Structures
1.
Amino acid sequence: MKSNRLQQFLIPLLAVLLGMIAGSIVMLASGYNPIAGFGALVYGAFGDTYYIGETIRQTTPYILTGLAVAFAFRTGLFNIGVEGQLIVGWLAAVWVGVSFDLPKIIHLPLALLAAALAGALWGLIPGVLKAYLKVHEVIITIMMNYIALHVTNAIIRSVLSDEGFKSKPVKESASLHSDFFDAITHHSTMHYGIFIAVAAAFVMWFLLERTTKGFELRAVGFNQHASQYAGMNVRANIILAMVISGAFAGVAGAMEGLGTFGNISTKAGFTGLGFDGIAVALIGGNNAFGILLSALLFGALKVGALEMPSSAGVPTELVDIIIALIIFFVASSYMIRWLLSRWQKGAE
Amino acid sequence: MKKRIGLVLSVLFAAGTLLSACGQAGNNAGGGNQKDTFSVAMVTDVGGIDDKSFNQSAWEGLQKFGKDNGLEKGRGGYDYLQSSSDADYATNLNKLVRSDFDLIFGIGYLMGDAVKEVAKQNPKKHFAIVDTVVDEPNVASITFKEHEGSFLVGVVAGLMTKTNKIGFVGGMEIPLIEKFESGFRAGVKAVNPKATVEVQYAGAFDQADKGKAIASSMYASGIDIIYHAAGATGNGVFSEAKDLKKKDPNREIWVIGVDKDQAPEGEVKVGGKTYNVTLTSMVKRVDVAVYDTAKRAKEGDFPGGKTIEYGLPENGVGIAPTQDNIPENVLKTVDEWKQKIIKGEVKVPTNRKEYEQFAATIK
């Protein structure tokens, strides 16, 4: 039992190490110094308080998109629509943030709630279609992403600005901006959202593991027919799962809208946060605590990678390959587990 | 078995410590030996350093500055950072601030907010922004009269179209690109009121596939000249024009390039003969502007808080030197209009409202 625990902890670490070795080979083959390269990566992610602040800022939405994907996974659904749900959540949060003048204690929660509701609505539609018409959620959610992107752009242009490309900044009373973090991290964009993200992870764990509804949701995920036979309402549970998943994604959008950017601008393409959320969820084992760690890994890789071209001279394209290799090895940790078990058998 | 895991763990920790130590050592070394020379860096927008237009032009300006002043690429010399999303703008600017560069350029309209914020946080540092105005005492704003240059290529298009149908492909629908659009349409209108200009926006500066799709439908509808103001998206316009030229070398279709002299982008070989689909380009000398600003900053004459506007008289905008595809008489007309604009006899519209007023004066 004890060694199992240790293994669970060790395997992701080993996977990261393998990824780094593969990355080193790529760097060596292209004539760059891997030690300088990875040194820059680590420095760019955790080197000083500013970088730590940026890493946490980047981790914040990853936690929430990871949770959104994982929640759907645990209930047997594949929510590719996190990206779109995030964008509508971002829009809703900013919309509330710029339109009202309220005390902070009402305004900020209201903006967050609006984001969650918008995301939930964007999850509700595929949920209903899946539950009643058996339309596969993957297809609907992919399409919903495009609808979200273009509808949001149109609203930013026509409603939130005067034919411009960005909204006004959200009012101070709805902002997640933190003077305290700003001061201790030398003006990084880190904001209070990290607390919300960590709290959301706890909410997901509690909901799934400690409530009857959570048990039902998981049961439907394991076996729909058995759940139905046991008297559960499968349709309602599918819809609920998509709604909750969408709400997590919507709040992720609020992190960007109320925290990192403080506004919303028209987007040429997807943010990638939602799609990366799929990888975050998988690497985190679809488990709330695991997601916190894997989101941190993604955040660190993303922010640290920016340092590689400037201080180690590794070109941006190569950096993308190296980051992808690390993710690849982490994601294929099953392979490592298998190798490890072979190795142990051999030793005993 | 436990022993093995212990071994693996210690290797891991050792690697971790080693790597982070390296990172720090590298940084300190970089930070220590650079105080005596002037250093300058830039942050690209999402178009990237090799967009064959705007960012690339800025980088060429910096490279020239670096060479002329004996600087090396990297910390303490000249360098660039590339942004892969708009979330990276502030991070990249801050990174350069922390690497102690003396002057930091934000390249592009979309970076205005980030430059403003970082400049406020670092009042002692010098910044420059290209294409928009940031009203801070430590920021020099560089803008161009793109409408004037676009007017001139509009004159070329108006005189050279055979179908009287002309296309304009914009990147994002923002006031900056509206300057290109309005100036271009005014130029066409001034010399050929019968010609129509179809305007389409791709919604992005970095999606060549969208540029190609728009160009494909435009050329299919009988448009024979497309002017693009779309950064890397415009590369798709070129590739569509070249594809069509390959299929039918006798078909007269043209692209008007932007920002740089884009003649090299338009070269296409068909059956041993070389054609070029680039009619000409509206050059915007971002490289010159970046060079000048860096030079002034180095000489202690940093134009902080000021806006420097580059127009036709300063040769900041204009028609590209490659004009092989344009007949002599057209070039003469272009020059006449150029003089009129410089003398102030013609006021080139900068937005759609002004264009409507301009168009009303022409029958």
2.
Amino acid sequence: MNDLKRTLENIENQFETFQILNEEGEIVNDDFMPDLSDEDLKEIMRRMVYTRILDQRSIALNRQGRLGFYAPTAGQEASQLGSQFALEKEDFILPGYRDVPQLIWHGLPLHQAFLFSRGHFKGNQMPEGVNAVSPQIIIGAQITQTAGVGLGYKKRGQNAVAITYTGDGGASQGDFYEGINFAGAFAAQAIFVVQNNRFAISVPVEKQSAAQTIAQKAVAAGIEGIQVDGMDVLAVYAATKEARDRAVNGEGPTLIETLTYRYGPHTMAGDDPTRYRTEDEDSEWEKKDPIVRFRKFLEAKGLWSEEEENELIEKTKEEIKAAVKEADNTPKQSVADLIGIMHEELPSNLQEQLEEYKEKESK
Amino acid sequence: MAQMTMIQAITDAMRTELKNDENVLIYGEDVGQNGGVFRATEGLQKEFGEDRVFDTPLAESGIGGMSIGLALTGFRPVPEIQFFGFVYEVMDAISGQMARYRYRSGGTRPMPITVRSPFGGGVHTPELHADSLEGLMAQQPGLRVVIPSNPYDAKGLLISSIRNNDPVIFLEHMKLYRSFREEVPEEEYTVDLDKAAVKREGTDVTLVAYGAMVHSSLKAAEELEKNGISAEVLDLRTVSPVDYETILASVKKTNRAVVVQEAQKQAGIASNIVAEIQEKAILHLEAPVLRVAAPDTVYAFTQAEEVWLPNHNTIVEKVNDVMNF
């Protein structure tokens, strides 16, 4: 007879959390230390600090009524930026709603990220050569699409991957299973990142599934799976880099679960995390902070200083200010504009409505 | 020219486009080796290889989502949903995603996807195989919904759909697959999307129909002619968007109309057409515009199917009501 408990234990034991840099900023897993130059290491730090500042400014702008929809990112920088740093320009990002930072570092200008938040369609237009789509709102819908992009790249023989992001709640969706299963069946060039921040809005990950890890779900799809310390930017980078290499070498897709935490609310639209999280839990995770530990690591190597960080913070604030101004100066969209982007050849009903709105909006 | 059934014409359209454009991909459940449960893709995998024509895992949402991903990498996917009753499994991928992608991306990400699927009543299928769900699709901005009524149109409309850079839901009435043959050119040709066809000219009443109901309407028109009533029959071919220009021109000539659909009466294609006629041509009307439709139950169990479905007799009855108003 199959002993379920033993079977599960056997599986779960194989998904121990992969870590390179511990909370003290010490390398604990030197064998897997990625081959990154000092300049690369500093660039990763710059991006994390920039993104943390951007998050703080975005929250402030939202509270002033100047931003619109916003999902805070603080706490998740290592998961978001470590994985993106492992990508090449040709790789295609299919983000969830919290994954705007990856888009920015993949080439979406900051003022467009603000336009996305403000509900202007120009925020969703990726510049030529930026391989990404705007953040997905339906939880998990991007996962099956990622299997498709990864299959497309394989069919074209391209040295590129599709990468998608969702959260622990997203791993409960049917589309999650269909997506990883399709990707496995077709050996699609795809990477599925689940940022397990422990809460799907308010529902804890323990209530999402009887499975002890999300990474182990890869087994059912017959694909590679790994659980990573999502507060350790080097571990996330190394896992993503390896997944990318495997994918483009025809060895199939990978599911990466990053263990992380969002310090802020689910979104700025009224979520109150004190209803479902304790202060103890918050402070326990803040001790694992990705920026704090990476700063310790860089400082020990003599690669980072307080002065340098302060300079970066000031520069970032200036850039944000300029981007807000650019977003403010973007002409408003009209309903006629929206009708114009519905189809290549406008059907007669919309042609009629286009005339109607052109007339109405010219007044 | 060859004599073809509608399903042969559909296969021929796919073969034509597989030859024309290397970005065309055809896939779905049982589509590859088996050639489809209705044999719509018969021989295509053998001719074009597994890279272009292939089987997928049995998961409609996955098929829909994968199609979007393939379109994002420049392919022109032609996925098959095995029966359109299964569309509920792929509603988000179709209505929440592919229909909205061009718009969502500010006009930068086209979705040249043609979702083919059999539907339609009268062939005694199990539940959720025969439903007419075109109304559900027509409610979604961004989709075109095409329903051919004959082999010639099926080939030309399918080629136009595949070449279109926006998503098309291409619905194939199962009862028409092999019910008759007609001459279909072996060479390529297109039939315009968004354009209705006048199948029979008349002067007393306009019958607006699509899919299998075009044939019921033509049969009704023959019966009506025996009683001296001259019915004009229109075949919509594209049910979303509807070609109101052709409908209104006909109604302004005949001054009466009956709109025929196989779907349930509530919230369907016919209701919208009635609304449009009264908005744009009410002073031309000699009688209210009536609808022929199925009752508002879930699709009938097969033993009641023949009564539940509209047919030429129910059409004749409604036309008589209109004529005697």
